[in-house]
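Q&A FORM
Asked by: J.P.
Topic: structure of LysR family transcriptional regulator

PROVIDED:
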Amino acid sequence: MQRPLPPLNALRAFEAAGRLGSFKDAAAELHVTHGAVSQHVRLLETWLGAPLFERHNRRVSLTPAARAYLEEIGPLFGRLAQATARYGLPATVSRMLSVNAPATFTLRWLVPRLARFNAAHPGIDVNVQTSNESVERLTDACDVVIRGGPDTFYGYSMRPFLSEERLPVCSPALLQRVPLTQPGDIRRHTLLHTSSLPRLWPDWLAKASMPAFQPAAVLTFDHFYLTLQAAIEGLGVAMGPTALVADDLAAGRLVAPLDGPRLPSRSYCTYVPDDKAPNELVAVFRAWLEREGTRSQTASSRCPKR
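REPLIED BY: S.T.
REPLY: Here is the structure written out as tokens.
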């Protein structure tokens, strides 16, 4: 008796859309159009005789029955790939994507999340280089450049994916020794500076109406990631960008003792050379960064301030 299998292309589109939570991201992963994914999903819904997604304004969510169905069929695609590899046919072709990003951003935001990208896209090898050079001064060709913005550079397309603000952060242990409940209490603390970002503390103090100010002490570092690590170790108070300290706030390694003021900051953006824009790997990586950026900002908004 012939097994009643659903259309396999439709099943693949449903699995990708359900796993990623987006028809657009599924289309980027499968290298098809958004309309093709929608059409495949509708075909599968017709075949099953039941809806799979609840359609909202600009997003979709799985129905409870579809979520259970996805949990059953999702692992089957992995098993199929493994079986194909054992038979001697490569399940995926290794493909390289070169990314250039600032060192502090790479260390504190990108690296902790790359495992999720590797798990979702095992056939893409990511080569990460770190640099603070401006986009137009880069000498090595890259597929994706991550820098602050939004800026405009000839020959590049730009898309923002992560926004942030800056505010004072320190370790919980430091607050136990020297309380910090209002901006004026900063006078009793050591301020942690970064030599390449000399305006952070002066701009914050001016916004807090304390331009003429003498802290208890000052420590200056040549790299921003060292400044943040010094704050975690309890050496003083640093101006922390919300995107890059969100994980530390959630884990309790850092706290943000003051509600304000907050300094506005530039967003993180992807800059892609025009000749690389049609590259399917670039589209996949950009879409992933944008999902992770949204997730990171949602988590940051839920972090306790103290």
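FOLLOW-UP: The chain has a mean pLDDT of 86.
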